[in-house]
């Protein structure tokens, strides 16, 4: 179980000592489908590393609309840095879309590492920053059709695990637009 976690940490430049410290600080969770890990407006008590399964975060409006923030799958960190840094309620909902195995790490531990200027905190921050910049580039530099093609190339296994509504949300388009893109690709 911890092998994937430790390998991901090693791939992201964590030292053996940091990997050991993180491994000792986490708790394993087994969650069912549609389990809410964090309600919008709730203060986060943990961050997560996803071993298996898919999670989703979304913003819910007062008018009943839902806007997809992000999808997470195997080997993803799920960290709400805005909430962690500002020590305020989460602006989004976080839930499992499938049965999930994940590791949780208390936010209190992360805050302690932040205050100590611990290298683990810096590496987690850098990992998230690189991920966010890649996602921003993906959303800004490519047309919806190109985003769909890249998604198909990079995450073919997710096409079988997500429905069209979820894929469209990840791509930042409507399900109708996705349907049109898929039809054009079949012509």
UniProtKB/TrEMBL annotation:
Residues 30-113 form the Cyclic nucleotide-binding domain. It comes from the Bacteria. Gene3D superfamilies: Jelly Rolls. This is Cyclic nucleotide-binding domain-containing protein. CDD domains: CAP_ED.
């Amino acid at each position: 179980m911890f092998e994937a976690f430790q390998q991901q940490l090693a791939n992201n430049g964590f030292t053996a000592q940091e990997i050991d410290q993180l491994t000792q600080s986490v708790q394993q969770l087994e969650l069912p489908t549609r389990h809410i890990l964090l309600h919008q407006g709730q203060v986060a008590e943990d961050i997560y590393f996803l071993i298996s399964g898919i999670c989703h975060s979304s913003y819910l409006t007062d008018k009943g609309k839902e806007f997809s923030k992000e999808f997470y799958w195997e080997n993803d960190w799920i960290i709400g840095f805005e909430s962690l840094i500002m020590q305020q309620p989460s602006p989004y909902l976080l839930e499992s879309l499938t049965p999930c195995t994940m590791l949780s790490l208390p936010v209190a531990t992360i805050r302690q590492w932040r205050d100590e200027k611990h290298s683990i905190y810096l590496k987690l921050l850098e990992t998230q920053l690189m991920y966010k910049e890649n996602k921003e580039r993906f959303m800004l530099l490519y047309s919806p059709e190109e985003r769909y093609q890249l998604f198909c190339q990079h995450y073919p296994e997710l096409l079988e695990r997500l429905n069209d509504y979820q894929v469209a949300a990840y791509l930042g388009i409507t399900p109708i637009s996705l349907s049109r893109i898929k039809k054009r690709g079949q012509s």
